[in-house]
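Slack export, channel: ligand-projects

TW: morning all. Re-posting the request from yesterday since it got buried. We need the structure predicted with the small molecule present, not the apo form. The ligand is flavin-adenine dinucleotide; the SMILES is in the block with the sequence. No rush, but it would help planning for next week.
GE: picking it up
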Amino acid sequence: MRVGVVGAGLAGIGAARILSQAGHEVRVFESQSEVGGRIQTVSHSGYLFDAGATSIAPMGQSLESVLLHELPTEELIRIEAPVVAHDGVRVFNGNVTASHIVRYTYQRGTQHAVTLMATGLDVRLNHKVECFDETSSGAYTLDGDEFDALVLTAPVPEVERLLARSREGRRFTNARFRSCLSVLLGFDSPFEARYHALVGPDQAHPLSWLSIESIKCPGRAPVGHTAMVAQMGAEYSRRRFDADDNLVLAETLSDVSRLLGKEFAQPRFSQVVRFKYSHPETTTSFEAVNSPMSRLVVAGDGLIGGRTELAYETGRRAARLLLENA
Ligand SMILES: Cc1cc2nc3c(=O)[nH]c(=O)nc-3n(C[C@H](O)[C@H](O)[C@H](O)COP(=O)(O)OP(=O)(O)OC[C@H]3O[C@@H](n4cnc5c(N)ncnc54)[C@H](O)[C@@H]3O)c2cc1C
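GE: finished. pasting the full token output, ligand included:
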């Protein structure tokens, strides 16, 4: 079977890897210049940041066994430092559940998980799929190539546009995504506390998650420096999504320095990263979108929930559905 996969995030690469291991010919099309999707690592000025998914918490899902037993583990890091809470003014040990979750990253960034999974796959980068066609014999044509089956793993709003342009009348109910502003900060001051992340009380607080990258994974900042990623909450990110970087930066630094001290008011490096489709706010289900005999399969976190291990699970399900029908 020849399978075309749209999107090289965890769902797409996960599906492609399973189909390829089963002996099928798979080609992945990715609009960006790297694999990873919303698992995105940025390296700059000696700092290393996970701008998207900060870590992978497989929580017993099948991704756990891929990370621990199928992929090389030399660079796999189990995050040891705890997660604590903040109320906008002070930091406290309030989030016991978040602290007990086992989380992983890689020395060179969480994105490396997808890079490792993509090893040996035929991935066409910088290749945005605009539409596809179905031939009279039931094959799919996509950019001049013919495929027996397709797996679509772009965020649901993108998939809906792709299906509409391709005159495929599949319907999604209530699949809405929120946005996220992720602010990368490098400081020339050391961070003395021993927690790796601060979680905000609820999504309404502007600062929803502050990851201390250089505590999460030592080596992500020069000695004596600190690397952080401030993920801004849903309401703030919606309101400021198109705002000037300088305004977002000033407001984020005001929140960060109020919590951590004035040595974290003036970064040596900063960058605002915008995720238009960050997390699904509502999901549809795999079964509602994909019929059991389908050769055009939709996968991705919009069918299940905005987490890496769940996104992988949908890619795995898409691959298994196609393998059962092959
Ligand atoms: C800021 C942020 C923080 C997060 N933190 C965590 C966390 O700590 N833990 C966790 O488990 N999850 C986290 N998540 C959620 C997690 O990143 C996602 O649930 C997961 O990565 C989604 O994977 P996916 O494969 O479904 O989609 P994506 O990763 O979005 O992959 C889809 C791919 O399709 C490509 N694409 C889109 N349209 C086209 C097209 N027309 N043609 C070709 N390619 C196309 C995109 O470029 C992308 O690479 C976070 C997300 C964000 C944004």
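GE: first-pass observations. The two ends are 7 Å apart (CA to CA). The pocket of flavin-adenine dinucleotide is lined by residues 6-12, 29-32, 37-39, 52-57, 128-129, 153-155, 158, 162, 180, 182, 231, 275, 278-279, 300-301, 306-308, 311 (CB under 6 Å).
TW: perfect, thank you
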